[in-house]
Automatic annotation (TrEMBL), chain A:
One BP annotation, GO: tRNA methylation
GO molecular function: protein heterodimerization activity
Protein family (similarity comment): Belongs to the TRM112 family.
Gene3D superfamilies (UniProt xref): 2.20.25.10
InterPro entries in UniProt: Trm112, Trm112-like
Species lineage: Eukaryota, Metazoa, Ecdysozoa, Arthropoda, Hexapoda
TM stretches of this protein: none
Species whose genome carries this gene: Polypedilum vanderplanki (Sleeping chironomid midge)
Name of this protein: Multifunctional methyltransferase subunit TRM112-like protein
Domain of life of the organism encoding this protein: Eukaryota
Automatic annotation (TrEMBL), chain B:
CDD domains with a match to the protein in the record: AdoMet_MTases (cd02440)
Pfam family, any one: Snapin_Pallidin
Highest taxon of the lineage: Eukaryota
GO molecular function: nucleic acid binding; protein-glutamine N-methyltransferase activity
The protein, known as: Methyltransferase HEMK2
Classification via Gene3D superfamilies: Vaccinia Virus protein VP39
Subcellular location: Nucleus
Record-linked SUPFAM superfamilies: S-adenosyl-L-methionine-dependent methyltransferases
Length: 124, 354
């Protein structure tokens, strides 16, 4: 699971969970796979990022230098920030770990890079 | 349907089941590609030569015209004949140049075909757990290929396939668009299918983010720009669910629709349930799972999102299109194919007129 994916996952599907976002992130095994930097993709994905999740992701993998808040107008031309985001979102693969619902602490395991977001019938 | 009922038209499609088809196609492609490329460079060279000749002839004819004028119409008959000959040659050269130009553009069409991703790494054991690519899979790939230029122009940020199974549809698209975007996603309720999708993506050198999920229940709303779904579309005699709630849970009991193989693979374990889930569409025209996605479409798609949905005629596509219209979606049928008693088609569904 790349950390871009983490930005899009919620536990809102659990019964009685109000927001379910951002999930807690627990990384046991990670690897880095370099990909070509495509600034346009990062620029276009920027408005869809939830900065609270990005900060959690960056802290979890020890990527530093991310601002506390994001200013969409200035960030879109900030090549250094775009490059950092490219690395954080697209190059770090979470192989093993878990995602945890912030409200219920329900654990969703990540195995072989695949998060398991399935719920039991009594949870929905 | 028994063999005797298969018409000639249907029979011609049977080659699709031939396991060596992919191998043959690959072999033929590898044979043809260098030849076509070689031909293309030759054609280009010839075009250049022809253009050069054309220019030279232009110069020559103007020189001759000058000569004629200078000679004050003395002895012009010889020059006239020569001039006419030259003009005839010139028009022939132009015709040849045009022919060469058009053959160049056919080469372009050949190179624009979307390659079927390799999936030879999947074995028959995998297909005990995961839906094996079949006619419906290839029709969906063909539909996306046909619509490729509009897909590229729409610049999807996130492309997601629901129920990716073997993963060849999303990998096919990722292979083609990977230089443009990185957001390829696959979800499947079957963990085995998730692994197969991941393996197919890796075998084709693309990244497809794979999530084990029921539909898009754990995905942020309104994120998907391009949605693809080859649903379980086969109408079955009973509901998929014996529960009170609307969600199909594949608590499939001994169903009539499953009689043929019931003695050998009656639902014993979860994986077999999963395999049934990959094709059984329930009793509502086979639309139980399709309807779940349609009901959630407003939450799934990003603004201007587009949805490619494979259906069978038995699903009553007109009813589905009316339902879509009622909540503001346009739809067009972009491809259809009749294969052994199944009439398959793909709808392209979108909110705004493109």
């Amino acid at each position: 699971m790349k950390l871009l994916t983490y930005n899009f996952l919620t536990s809102k599907c659990i019964k009685k969970v109000k927001v379910g976002y951002p999930l807690k992130l627990n990384i046991m095994e990670q690897k880095v796979e370099s990909t070509n930097f495509n600034p346009e993709f990062i620029q276009r994905v920027l408005p869809r990022l939830d900065w609270s999740a990005i900060k959690i992701a960056a802290d979890s993998v020890g990527c530093q230098g991310f601002p506390d808040e994001i200013n969409l107008e200035t960030s879109t031309n900030d090549t250094e920030l775009l490059q950092k985001l490219h690395h954080l979102l697209l190059e770090i693969e979470v192989v093993t770990g878990s995602l945890i619902c912030p409200e219920t602490n329900r654990i969703f395991p990540i195995t072989n890079g695949i998060p398991n977001m399935l719920l039991n019938e009594d949870e929905v | 349907m028994s063999d005797s009922e298969i018409s000639d038209e249907d029979n011609t499609e049977n080659f699709i089941e031939n396991p060596t088809r992919e191998l043959l196609a690959e072999g033929l492609l590898s044979l043809f590609t260098p030849i076509v490329e070689n031909l293309d460079s030759k054609v280009k060279q010839t075009v250049l030569v022809q253009l050069n000749i054309n220019a030279q002839l232009d110069i020559l004819s103007s020189v001759i015209k000058d000569q004629i004028n200078k000679q004050n119409k003395q002895d012009t008959s010889e020059f006239d004949i020569a001039l006419r000959n030259l003009n005839a040659i010139k028009s022939k050269v132009t015709v040849i140049t045009n022919v060469l130009h058009s053959s160049s553009s056919s080469k372009f069409i050949v190179s624009n075909i979307m390659e079927t991703p390799s999936y030879s790494h999947l074995t028959s054991n995998d297909y005990n757990h995961v839906y094996e690519p079949a006619e419906d899979t290839f029709l969906l790939i063909d539909a996306l290929e046909q619509d490729l230029s509009s897909i590229q122009a729409s610049k999807p940020l996130l492309t997601l396939e629901i129920g990716s199974g073997s993963g060849i549809v999303i990998s096919a698209l990722a292979k083609y668009l990977t230089h443009q975007t990185h957001g390829f996603y696959a979800v499947d309720i079957n963990n085995y299918a998730c692994n197969a999708t991941k393996r197919t993506a890796i075998a084709n050198n693309v990244n497809v983010e794979t999530i084990n999920m029921d539909m898009l229940t754990a995905f942020k709303y309104n994120s998907i720009d391009l949605l693809i779904f080859n649903p379980p579309y086969v109408p079955t005699s009973t509901s998929l669910s014996t529960c009170e709630d609307k969600e199909p849970r594949a608590t499939v009991e001994q169903e009539k629709f499953y009689d043929i193989e019931a003695d050998t693979i009656f639902v014993k374990d979860n994986q077999e349930k999963m395999l049934i889930k990959s094709w059984a569409g329930g009793d509502d025209d086979g639309c139980q799972v399709i309807n779940r996605v349609l009901g959630e479409l407003d939450n799934i798609l990003a603004p201007n999102g587009v949805f490619y949905l494979l259906l069978i005629k038995d699903n009553n596509p007109e009813k589905i299109r009316k339902r879509l219209k009622s909540f503001g979606y346009n739809s067009i049928q972009i491809i259809d194919r009749k294969i052994r008693g199944e009439h398959l088609l793909v709808l392209k569904i979108f909110k705004n007129l493109l």
